[in-house]
Amino acid sequence: MGAAGADGRDRRAAVADEPSHTPYSATVRPFRFAVQCATAGSGRAWRDRARRLEGRGYATMYCPDHLGEQWAPTVAMTIAAEATTTLRVGALVLDVDYRHPAVLAKEAATLDLASEGRLEFGIGAGWLRSDYEQAGLAYDPPGVRIGRLSEAIDVCRGAWSGEPFDHAGEHYRISGLTGAPRPHRPGGPPVLVGGGGPKVLALAARKADIVGLNASLHEGFVGAGVASSARAERFDERRRWVQEAAGPHRFAELELQINTFMVVVTATAAEADALFESLAGGFGLTPDEARDVPLVLAGTVEQLCEQLLARRERYGVSYVVVPDGEADAFAPVVARLAGT
């Protein structure tokens, strides 16, 4: 079973031609929360952080995959899984261009087996141009990288099947490979793919179990284009792309995720008002429009709960990732909403 789980089987997708601002479904998924963690001063500190997140009620500890100060994700995930008993681990997300999918599938299967099914397999087409330039990797056009991602998912699923398989694609050729070991979960860990454009989100809708709705990163760096693509109406559009590409039955089984880049827990509503006033100028938005940017959460615990409930109703997003630095302050929100 994928990450969508049995709790999503009876969901019914909204009709494909509904207005983009209406709720995505008559029934919604319970909330799950995750934290994106990049580095630590020691192995002990990393283990302690994983245990703390588990104790705070977070479902998953994610790691990024870049060539900067971040820990290597496969090692970081393994340490976190070994230090905990219920916490899921994953990468947000593994860059398909850094590892051959047959090798990556073996590593993922091993970790899924060792953790008894606690791996979430996040994989993406790559986007950070500076990583490619510094490592001397070819930074292919988005369509090429997305095509490679699509084939890599097929290769991984073939390797996780436990049966010999072949793959003859534009980017990879596999002949009679039997993947080993077998993952803990039949068919392999749930696959997570996120994106901000129609092509990658259509791919995610067809092949992933968890779909991340992101801002557009097609520029290859975080700049003005990312900010302009973070408006609320753009996320309405992204949810609609996923819904249309998936079709009613499959869309009902998908879990929709969002990775917030700013979370601020304030003591008063006035502090949140001041923050949105300051953010508005940077985004070129009004303060009210800034409040609706799905990648930002700011306010008191009560306000944050209200924001998340409203966004789940609007976009269908029930799986929320917060930055590591705000995980402790955000924990009261997790305590109120997780599983509801």
The gist of it:
Helices cover 43% and strands 17% of the residues. With 340 residues, it is of the alpha/beta class.
Could you characterize what this model shows?
With about 350 residues, the protein is α/β, with parallel strands linked by helices. The chain has one domain: Luciferase-like domain (TIM Barrel, Alpha-Beta Barrel). It contains 13 helices and 13 strands. The strands form three sheets. Strands 1-2-3-5-8-9-10-13 form an eight-stranded parallel beta barrel, surrounded by eight helices. Helix 1 links the parallel strand 1 and strand 2. Helix 2 runs parallel beside helix 3, helix 5 runs parallel beside helix 6 and helix 12 crosses helix 13. The radius of gyration is 19 Å and the shape is globular. The chain starts with about 30 loop residues before the first strand and ends with a helix. The N terminus is likely disordered.
Features:
43% helix, eight-stranded parallel beta barrel, two-stranded antiparallel sheet, single chain, 340 residues, TIM Barrel, alpha/beta
List the helices and strands and how they pair.
Layout: E1 32-36, H1 43-55, E2 60-63, H2 73-83, E3 88-91, E4 94-95, H3 101-114, E5 119-124, H4 129-135, H5 142-160, E6 165-168, E7 173-177, E8 191-195, H6 198-207, E9 210-213, H7 224-228, H8 232-246, H9 248-253, E10 255-259, E11 262-265, H10 269-283, H11 287-291, E12 296-299, H12 301-315, E13 317-323, H13 327-337
Parallel strand pairs: 1-2, 1-13, 2-3, 3-5, 4-5, 5-8, 8-9, 9-10, 10-13, 11-12
Antiparallel strand pairs: 6-7
Helix pairs in contact: 1-2, 2-3, 3-5, 5-6, 6-8, 12-13
